[in-house]
Amino acid sequence: MLDRDLPLKKEIAKNIKELIKMNSLNQIKLSELSGISKSTLSDYLNCKTLINPVNVEKIANALNVEKSKIDPSFATNKVLSLKEKTIETIAAHIDDDVTEEEMEDIKNYIDFIKSQRK
């Protein structure tokens, strides 16, 4: 089964490892500072589990850094419209082998459905 979150998991793991090193810490000390269990932290560092937003914040607070330094998805400055969010959410559930043309068809279908409202 394809793990769609794997690239993000890898980036988050790399970021946490770099921050641990920069702060002259180890995994156990970060666990103590953040209040996140050693096993959960280990799962993040070994890309087994995608970190949740609460734990991103706990680590960010423990290391006194912005959340985006841990999870790059917090770095987005773009405010999406409701339509863009909807399309992005739908797109996240579509197989990786969808062509650009098929994706355009999906967007057009969404617009068509919306146009049929009374």
UniProtKB/TrEMBL annotation:
Signal sequence bounds: none
HTH cro/C1-type domain: residues covered: 16-70
Source organism of this protein record: Viridibacillus soli
PROSITE patterns xrefs: HTH_CROC1 (PS50943)
Full protein name: Helix-turn-helix transcriptional regulator
InterPro entries assigned: Cro/C1-type_HTH, Lambda_DNA-bd_dom_sf
